[in-house]
């Protein structure tokens, strides 16, 4: 069996283990985010059959003609719901477009989700997956808060009713005339608190290590890959790392699907670095005062969605 290259934690040990097992989970998770910015989680409570159903629904939608898909692209939504066409998004500071198209699902009370009427099971399946990933994220944020020495619900409370986003990505077969500088996803960092990446349909994910080399993260059934984003890095004054990562092109030019769940805090959340984390990182404030909403709007403009 293929070995994972990043630390692996078992969520059931945090939920149901003894005190020693729970503490080991918290420490492993926290140290992984300090050193690599990534870990993998097993026994995560997200239904694997549901994940596969979601990929089937995604394939059913993305194989439709561009005319059909573009019915669900609304420029007024800044890419925050529905369809975003191939080549629209690029990584921050990277001019070449990413070789992907995608669909966004969020909380209905922020913006209404779009419903592709050609695929009747699409919305029910994606909404159910959204709920399960959201619950998993809450639990992981509780462990993260305990690692930081904060109250258990400190981070998860920031996400209650926040507009976390499930992104369903289709990386089509790479066209022969693609820009040589284009990758399926160019090197970037996520903006949010944490990201949960459902097991993709193919490999390609790599993270940038501190020594400047790229580490491949294999796609292993039953594992969800988790990474910390810029907002968590900011809040912890750089204690927890937002690590550069990418999705590389494979020579066989096969299509690929993935489904990251971007966990956001509510817009008014103050991301000023925590005093406890300032103490742990040399007593120097490394990041400016900013709210989560201001941070998000700034990044949407930088990556071409706004």
UniProtKB/TrEMBL annotation:
Among InterPro entries, the record links this protein to: DIOX_N, IPNS-like_FE2OG_OXY, IPNS-like_sf, Iron_ascorbate_oxido_reductase, Oxoglu/Fe-dep_dioxygenase_dom
- Pathway info: Antibiotic biosynthesis
Q: Which UniProt keywords apply?
A: Iron, Metal-binding, Oxidoreductase
Keyword NADP applies: no
Tell me the superkingdom of the source: Bacteria
GO MF annotation terms: metal ion binding; oxidoreductase activity
Q: Which parts of the sequence belong to the Fe2OG dioxygenase domain?
A: 161-265
Q: Which PANTHER family match?
A: 2-OXOGLUTARATE (2OG) AND FE(II)-DEPENDENT OXYGENASE SUPERFAMILY PROTEIN-RELATED
Query: Hey, which family's this protein in?
Result: Belongs to the iron/ascorbate-dependent oxidoreductase family.
What's this protein's name?
Answer: Oxidoreductase, 2OG-Fe(II) oxygenase family protein
Organism the protein comes from: Leptolyngbya boryana NIES-2135
What are the top taxonomic ranks of the organism? Bacteria, Bacillati, Cyanobacteriota, Cyanophyceae, Leptolyngbyales
């Amino acid at each position: 069996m293929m070995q994972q290259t990043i630390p692996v934690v078992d969520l059931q040990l945090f939920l149901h283990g003894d005190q020693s097992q729970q503490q080991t989970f918290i420490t492993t998770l926290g140290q992984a985010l300090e050193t690599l910015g990534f870990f993998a989680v097993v026994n995560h409570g997200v239904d694997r059959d549901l994940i596969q159903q979601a990929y089937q629904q995604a394939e059913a939608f993305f194989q439709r003609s561009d005319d059909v898909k573009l019915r669900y692209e609304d420029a007024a939504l800044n890419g925050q719901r529905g369809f975003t066409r191939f080549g629209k998004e690029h990584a921050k500071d990277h001019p070449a477009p990413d070789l992907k198209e995608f669909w966004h699902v969020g909380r209905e009370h922020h913006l209404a989700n779009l419903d592709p009427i050609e695929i009747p099971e699409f919305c029910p399946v994606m909404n159910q997956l959204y709920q399960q990933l959201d619950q998993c994220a809450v639990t992981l944020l509780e462990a993260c808060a305990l690692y930081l020495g904060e109250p258990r619900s400190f981070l998860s409370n920031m996400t209650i009713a926040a507009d976390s986003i499930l992104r369903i990505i289709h990386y089509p077969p790479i066209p022969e005339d693609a820009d040589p500088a284009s990758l399926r996803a160019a090197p970037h960092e996520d903006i949010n608190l944490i990201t949960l990446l459902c097991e993709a349909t193919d490999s390609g994910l790599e993270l940038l290590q501190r020594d400047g080399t790229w580490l491949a993260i294999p796609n292993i059934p039953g594992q969800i890959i988790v990474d910390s984003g810029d907002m968590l890095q900011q809040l912890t004054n750089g204690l927890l790392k937002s690590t550069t990562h990418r999705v590389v092109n494979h020579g066989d030019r096969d299509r690929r699907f993935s489904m990251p769940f971007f966990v956001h805090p509510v817009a008014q959340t103050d991301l000023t670095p925590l005093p406890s984390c300032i103490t742990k990182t040399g007593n120097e404030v490394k990041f400016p005062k900013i709210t989560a909403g201001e941070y998000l709007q700034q990044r949407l403009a930088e990556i071409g969605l706004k």
